[in-house]
Amino acid sequence: MSLLELHHVSKNFGSYQALDNVSFSVEPGRIVGLIGPNGAGKSTAMRAITGLMSYSDGEIIFDDERIRFAKNKSLARMGNLIEYPAIYPNFTARDHMTYYAMDAKDHADIDELMKITGIDGEKFGKRKAKKFSLGMKQRLGIAIALIRNPKFVVLDEPMNGLDPQSVRDIRALIRSLADKGVAFLISSHLLDELQRLADDVVIINKGKVLRREKMVDFLAEGKTQVKVQTNDNDKMLAAAKAAGWDASMGDDRVLIAVQGDVTAQKVLKLATDEGLEVTDIQTGQGNLEDHLLSVLSTDATRA
């Protein structure tokens, strides 16, 4: 049974349609990645779900109650970190936790929550929030989102500004809570991190949901690729395309789809024939970023 359900939700800003007939659901204990390009409608959907914004049509059901703009008792069972955490510059981390726990009937143990989110050490201490770094503010925002022992948590760019160890810690925290039944809806541009974390994926573009399915099923659809890095990737890409291969540029290597008679050995031979030095070559499935770009490219072709 779903904890959150969106049924044909639309949102208009004048003549601009930010959400267009959006439908998807989130089940208890599942981590759902909401992904898409800038301006796709991710933040609008999250704000509507958390009661921060009205919507024009459709309905949003959370914990068997319909979400309405700013009039929802059910929102007390929901935590969120959207855009920037609501932080008071002259409050310490503990001041914030005490303040946000004041009207909660069943709030989390403040000391424990501060410890597991990493806001209890000497780095925080009695320091006021106006002196916090971006990463410190982000960790505090996540702690605030969890203070009410929520059943469902909405996080927009939760890894923003965090160092690698903090990213790992927050990922472990989210997974541990999901294992206890807490559901998450997470939007992030750090797709590698989201790929490690999310159970399900919802792809949205131009206000419309393009795909919604389990992450493992979505990734399994992708083409196997030869990923080759040379001393001149631009030349390698041009040669691959001239050979009629389905090739594109990755971050630091050329990605060539394995199809027909294309093999890693043939890619290596082509590079050698072009006088290129191959520094790395491997075969594997594409990652979440590759799959997302493929879906968006197909959507653009259909438009």
From TrEMBL:
Superkingdom of origin:
Bacteria
Ranges annotated as spanning the membrane: none
Stated family: Belongs to the ABC transporter superfamily.
> Which InterPro entries does this one have?
AAA+_ATPase (IPR003593), ABC_transporter-like_ATP-bd (IPR003439), ABC_transporter-like_CS (IPR017871), P-loop_NTPase (IPR027417)
Q: Could you tell me what this protein is called?
A: ABC transporter ATP-binding protein
Tell me the ranges covered by the ABC transporter domain, including all copies.
Answer: 4-231
Which segments of the protein form a coiled coil according to its record? none
One GO molecular function term of this record is:
ATP hydrolysis activity
